[in-house]
Amino acid sequence: MAHIKRFDHVGITVSDLDAATAFFVGLGLEVEGRTFVEGEFLDTVCGIPDSRTEIVMLRTADGSARLELATFVRPDHEPGSPTAMANELGLRNVSFEVEDLQGAVDGLAADGYGLVGGVGEYENTWRMAYVRGPDGIVVSLFESVG
Description:
The protein is of the alpha+beta class. It folds into 2 domains: 10-74, 2,3-Dihydroxybiphenyl 1,2-Dioxygenase, domain 1; 94-144, Roll (2,3-Dihydroxybiphenyl 1,2-Dioxygenase, domain 1), CATH 3.10.180.10. It is built from 3 helices and 9 strands, in the order βαβαβββαββββ. A hairpin with a 3-residue loop joins strand 7 and strand 8 (126-132). The longest helix has 10 residues, at 17-26. Keywords: Metal-binding. It holds the Pfam family Glyoxalase_4. It comes from Nocardioides bizhenqiangii. Residues 6-144 form the VOC domain. This is VOC family protein.
């Protein structure tokens, strides 16, 4: 029995909502909205009494995917592993197809974000690179080749 109706979004908790938003806007995502959430609903869903979050919802230009960035106003966020590698359990990466991989990597480098490894090419089909963004978020960027 299928329970999933559709994919809606991926949510990521960050410490600096403005920096994370700027990072993803720099990649080409658009801000859909920004709001605070608190009260019985949030306390029930996340299981943290008296919590308050600020959320930014982003979407791709074509509207095909959304990304929710959230920061906890209270209680304070718990740090994750900012240097997590691909073999650590948990969210591995958020992936986006780009028109110009080297241009995207260079633009992020100018903003202080670097590659996790290098730029790889898979069977003359596509090129990919992992970039580590704010709070250690790994973003996979790829472009078609050939």
